Protein backbone atom coordinates (compact mmCIF):
# COMPACT_ATOMS: atom_id res chain seq x y z
CA UNK A 1 0.00 0.00 0.00
CA UNK A 2 1.24 3.41 -0.84
CA UNK A 3 2.30 5.39 2.21
CA UNK A 4 0.15 8.47 2.74
CA UNK A 5 1.65 11.86 2.09
CA UNK A 6 3.13 12.78 5.46
CA UNK A 7 3.23 16.40 4.53
CA UNK A 8 -0.58 16.66 4.34
CA UNK A 9 -2.53 18.53 6.98
CA UNK A 10 -4.75 15.50 7.79
CA UNK A 11 -1.88 13.24 8.86
CA UNK A 12 0.04 16.05 10.58
CA UNK A 13 -3.08 16.79 12.62
CA UNK A 14 -3.40 13.17 13.72
CA UNK A 15 0.29 12.85 14.62
CA UNK A 16 0.15 16.08 16.64
CA UNK A 17 -2.96 15.00 18.52
CA UNK A 18 -5.33 17.13 16.48
CA UNK A 19 -8.42 15.97 14.63
CA UNK A 20 -10.21 17.19 11.52
CA UNK A 21 -13.52 18.89 12.30
CA UNK A 22 -15.60 16.22 10.53
CA UNK A 23 -14.15 13.41 12.67
CA UNK A 24 -14.34 15.56 15.79
CA UNK A 25 -18.04 16.18 15.16
CA UNK A 26 -18.66 12.44 14.78
CA UNK A 27 -16.86 11.69 18.02
CA UNK A 28 -18.63 14.58 19.71
CA UNK A 29 -21.90 13.13 18.50
CA UNK A 30 -21.04 9.74 19.97
CA UNK A 31 -20.16 11.37 23.29
CA UNK A 32 -23.38 13.38 23.28
CA UNK A 33 -25.40 10.25 22.52
CA UNK A 34 -23.75 8.39 25.41
CA UNK A 35 -24.44 11.30 27.77
CA UNK A 36 -28.08 11.42 26.64
CA UNK A 37 -28.40 7.68 27.33
CA UNK A 38 -26.84 8.10 30.78
CA UNK A 39 -29.22 10.97 31.60
CA UNK A 40 -32.19 8.92 30.40
CA UNK A 41 -31.17 6.01 32.64
CA UNK A 42 -30.76 8.24 35.70
CA UNK A 43 -34.08 9.97 35.07
CA UNK A 44 -35.83 6.65 34.59
CA UNK A 45 -34.38 5.32 37.86
CA UNK A 46 -35.53 8.42 39.75
CA UNK A 47 -39.02 8.23 38.24
CA UNK A 48 -39.61 4.76 39.64
CA UNK A 49 -41.92 5.04 42.62
CA UNK A 50 -40.80 3.80 46.00
CA UNK A 51 -42.29 0.34 46.38
CA UNK A 52 -44.37 0.30 49.59
CA UNK A 53 -43.91 -3.46 49.91
CA UNK A 54 -40.22 -2.84 50.67
CA UNK A 55 -41.34 -1.52 54.06
CA UNK A 56 -42.47 -5.07 54.89
CA UNK A 57 -39.04 -6.51 54.08
CA UNK A 58 -37.44 -8.16 57.14
CA UNK A 59 -34.21 -6.41 58.08
CA UNK A 60 -32.55 -9.83 57.86
CA UNK A 61 -33.29 -9.81 54.11
CA UNK A 62 -33.07 -6.11 53.31
CA UNK A 63 -30.77 -5.23 50.38
CA UNK A 64 -28.81 -2.06 51.00
CA UNK A 65 -25.93 -0.15 49.43
CA UNK A 66 -23.69 1.54 51.99
CA UNK A 67 -21.96 4.48 50.33
CA UNK A 68 -19.63 7.40 50.91
CA UNK A 69 -18.53 10.41 48.87
CA UNK A 70 -15.33 12.39 49.05
CA UNK A 71 -15.82 16.05 48.17
CA UNK A 72 -13.69 19.14 47.64
CA UNK A 73 -15.31 20.79 50.66
CA UNK A 74 -18.49 20.89 52.69
CA UNK A 75 -20.78 23.20 50.71
CA UNK A 76 -22.02 22.37 47.23
CA UNK A 77 -23.85 25.74 47.30
CA UNK A 78 -20.44 27.41 47.21
CA UNK A 79 -19.06 25.30 44.37
CA UNK A 80 -17.67 22.25 46.18
CA UNK A 81 -17.91 19.06 44.14
CA UNK A 82 -17.78 15.28 44.41
CA UNK A 83 -14.30 13.81 43.87
CA UNK A 84 -15.08 10.11 44.38
CA UNK A 85 -17.83 7.57 44.97
CA UNK A 86 -17.45 4.43 47.08
CA UNK A 87 -20.08 1.79 47.83
CA UNK A 88 -20.58 -1.79 48.95
CA UNK A 89 -23.64 -4.06 48.82
CA UNK A 90 -25.09 -5.62 51.97
CA UNK A 91 -27.93 -8.15 52.26
CA UNK A 92 -29.29 -8.37 55.78
CA UNK A 93 -26.16 -8.73 57.90
CA UNK A 94 -24.11 -10.21 55.05
CA UNK A 95 -21.53 -7.76 53.69
CA UNK A 96 -20.83 -8.67 50.06
CA UNK A 97 -17.11 -7.90 50.10
CA UNK A 98 -16.76 -8.76 46.41
CA UNK A 99 -19.59 -6.42 45.34
CA UNK A 100 -18.00 -2.99 45.61
CA UNK A 101 -18.00 0.18 43.57
CA UNK A 102 -15.38 2.92 43.42
CA UNK A 103 -14.53 5.72 41.03
CA UNK A 104 -12.86 9.09 40.99
CA UNK A 105 -14.57 11.80 38.94
CA UNK A 106 -13.29 14.90 37.20
CA UNK A 107 -13.66 18.11 39.20
CA UNK A 108 -14.30 21.53 37.72
CA UNK A 109 -13.12 23.25 40.88
CA UNK A 110 -9.73 23.35 42.59
CA UNK A 111 -9.02 20.82 45.35
CA UNK A 112 -7.78 22.59 48.51
CA UNK A 113 -4.50 21.39 49.98
CA UNK A 114 -6.16 20.35 53.26
CA UNK A 115 -8.59 18.13 51.34
CA UNK A 116 -5.71 16.52 49.46
CA UNK A 117 -3.91 15.88 52.76
CA UNK A 118 -7.09 14.39 54.20
CA UNK A 119 -8.12 12.19 51.27
CA UNK A 120 -4.94 11.69 49.25
CA UNK A 121 -6.80 12.86 46.14
CA UNK A 122 -4.96 15.39 43.98
CA UNK A 123 -6.08 17.59 41.09
CA UNK A 124 -3.92 15.48 38.77
CA UNK A 125 -5.84 12.36 39.79
CA UNK A 126 -9.26 13.88 39.15
CA UNK A 127 -8.09 15.51 35.90
CA UNK A 128 -7.49 12.01 34.52
CA UNK A 129 -10.78 10.65 35.90
CA UNK A 130 -14.08 10.21 34.01
CA UNK A 131 -16.59 13.07 33.99
CA UNK A 132 -19.23 13.38 36.71
CA UNK A 133 -22.05 12.04 34.52
CA UNK A 134 -20.09 8.81 33.94
CA UNK A 135 -19.34 8.28 37.63
CA UNK A 136 -22.89 9.17 38.67
CA UNK A 137 -24.45 6.88 36.07
CA UNK A 138 -22.25 3.95 37.06
CA UNK A 139 -22.86 4.55 40.77
CA UNK A 140 -26.64 4.65 40.31
CA UNK A 141 -26.49 1.54 38.13
CA UNK A 142 -24.69 -0.21 41.01
CA UNK A 143 -27.31 1.03 43.49
CA UNK A 144 -30.36 0.16 41.41
CA UNK A 145 -33.46 0.42 43.61
CA UNK A 146 -31.76 -0.67 46.83
CA UNK A 147 -32.00 1.31 50.05
CA UNK A 148 -29.00 3.61 50.58
CA UNK A 149 -27.12 3.84 53.89
CA UNK A 150 -24.49 6.41 54.88
CA UNK A 151 -23.00 7.90 58.04
CA UNK A 152 -23.99 11.53 58.47
CA UNK A 153 -26.06 11.10 55.33
CA UNK A 154 -27.16 14.76 55.06
CA UNK A 155 -23.76 15.71 53.59
CA UNK A 156 -23.65 12.86 51.08
CA UNK A 157 -27.31 13.22 50.12
CA UNK A 158 -26.99 16.96 49.49
CA UNK A 159 -23.97 16.46 47.20
CA UNK A 160 -25.66 13.55 45.44
CA UNK A 161 -28.76 15.66 44.85
CA UNK A 162 -26.63 18.53 43.54
CA UNK A 163 -24.87 16.19 41.11
CA UNK A 164 -28.15 14.60 39.97
CA UNK A 165 -29.66 18.03 39.32
CA UNK A 166 -26.54 19.35 37.58
CA UNK A 167 -26.30 16.38 35.21
CA UNK A 168 -29.89 15.20 34.81
CA UNK A 169 -32.25 17.73 36.41
CA UNK A 170 -33.64 15.18 38.88
CA UNK A 171 -33.55 14.65 42.64
CA UNK A 172 -32.77 11.49 44.58
CA UNK A 173 -35.90 9.43 45.27
CA UNK A 174 -34.23 6.50 47.05
CA UNK A 175 -34.78 5.75 50.72
CA UNK A 176 -31.70 6.77 52.72
CA UNK A 177 -30.86 5.48 56.20
CA UNK A 178 -28.25 7.04 58.45
CA UNK A 179 -26.02 5.07 60.84
CA UNK A 180 -25.62 8.25 62.89
CA UNK A 181 -29.38 8.28 63.49
CA UNK A 182 -29.22 4.63 64.51
CA UNK A 183 -26.42 5.45 66.94
CA UNK A 184 -28.40 8.32 68.48
CA UNK A 185 -31.38 5.99 68.96
CA UNK A 186 -29.48 2.97 70.29
CA UNK A 187 -26.79 4.85 72.24
CA UNK A 188 -28.43 8.09 73.41
CA UNK A 189 -25.90 8.56 76.21
CA UNK A 190 -23.05 9.37 73.82
CA UNK A 191 -21.83 12.91 73.29
CA UNK A 192 -19.89 12.10 70.11
CA UNK A 193 -21.31 10.34 67.07
CA UNK A 194 -18.46 10.75 64.59
CA UNK A 195 -17.62 7.76 62.45
CA UNK A 196 -14.19 7.44 64.07
CA UNK A 197 -15.72 7.38 67.56
CA UNK A 198 -18.35 4.78 66.71
CA UNK A 199 -15.91 2.56 64.84
CA UNK A 200 -13.64 2.55 67.89
CA UNK A 201 -16.54 1.81 70.26
CA UNK A 202 -17.62 -1.16 68.12
CA UNK A 203 -14.06 -2.47 67.72
CA UNK A 204 -14.10 -1.98 63.96
CA UNK A 205 -10.54 -1.49 62.64
CA UNK A 206 -10.02 1.94 61.08
CA UNK A 207 -8.20 1.52 57.77
CA UNK A 208 -7.96 3.90 54.84
CA UNK A 209 -10.05 6.60 56.49
CA UNK A 210 -11.35 9.30 54.12
CA UNK A 211 -11.15 6.99 51.11
CA UNK A 212 -14.73 6.67 49.82
CA UNK A 213 -14.70 2.88 49.41
CA UNK A 214 -12.87 2.19 52.68
CA UNK A 215 -15.23 4.50 54.57
CA UNK A 216 -18.18 2.72 52.96
CA UNK A 217 -16.81 -0.66 54.03
CA UNK A 218 -16.30 0.51 57.63
CA UNK A 219 -19.77 2.06 57.69
CA UNK A 220 -21.14 -1.26 56.42
CA UNK A 221 -19.59 -3.02 59.41
CA UNK A 222 -21.13 -0.42 61.71
CA UNK A 223 -24.53 -0.87 60.02
CA UNK A 224 -24.35 -4.64 60.51
CA UNK A 225 -23.31 -4.17 64.14
CA UNK A 226 -26.44 -2.08 64.75
CA UNK A 227 -28.63 -4.61 62.90
CA UNK A 228 -27.35 -7.32 65.26
CA UNK A 229 -28.13 -5.14 68.27
CA UNK A 230 -31.62 -4.38 66.96
CA UNK A 231 -32.36 -8.06 66.32
CA UNK A 232 -31.23 -8.98 69.85
CA UNK A 233 -32.77 -6.18 71.87
CA UNK A 234 -35.57 -4.45 70.00
CA UNK A 235 -38.92 -5.42 68.54
CA UNK A 236 -37.93 -4.20 65.10
CA UNK A 237 -38.32 -6.79 62.37
CA UNK A 238 -38.93 -4.88 59.14
CA UNK A 239 -37.77 -1.72 57.41
CA UNK A 240 -41.12 -0.15 58.26
CA UNK A 241 -40.60 -0.97 61.94
CA UNK A 242 -37.19 0.66 61.82
CA UNK A 243 -38.58 3.85 60.27
CA UNK A 244 -41.28 3.95 62.95
CA UNK A 245 -38.75 3.70 65.79
CA UNK A 246 -36.39 6.24 64.22
CA UNK A 247 -39.22 8.72 63.74
CA UNK A 248 -39.87 8.60 67.50
CA UNK A 249 -36.22 8.75 68.51
From TrEMBL:
The answer to whether UniProt assigns keyword Hydrolase to this entry is yes
Where are the coiled-coil regions?
Answer: none
A biological process term (GO) from this entry: DNA replication proofreading
Q: Which UniProt keywords apply?
A: Exonuclease, Hydrolase, Nuclease
Tell me which Pfam families the record gives.
RNase_T
Question: Which GO terms of the molecular function aspect are on file?
Answer: 3'-5' exonuclease activity; DNA binding; DNA-directed DNA polymerase activity
Q: Which GO terms describe its cellular component?
A: cytosol
Domain Exonuclease: residue ranges = 63-232
Record's SMART domains? Answer: EXOIII
Q: Which InterPro entries did the record assign?
A: DnaQ, Ribonucl_H, RNaseH-like_sf, RNaseH_sf
The protein's matches in CDD domains, at most eight in alphabetical order, are given as: DEDDh
Any keyword Nuclease?
yes
User: What is the name attached to this protein's record?
Assistant: DNA polymerase-3 subunit epsilon
Q: Which organism is it from?
A: Paenibacillus typhae
Amino acid sequence: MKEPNKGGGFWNNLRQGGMPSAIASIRGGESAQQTAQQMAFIRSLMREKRRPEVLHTPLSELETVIFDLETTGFSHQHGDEIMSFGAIRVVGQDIKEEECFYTLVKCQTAIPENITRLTGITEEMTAAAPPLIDGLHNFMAFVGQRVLVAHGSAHDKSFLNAALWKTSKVQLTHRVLDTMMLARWLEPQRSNYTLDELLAVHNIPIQGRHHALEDAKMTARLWVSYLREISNRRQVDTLGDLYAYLSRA
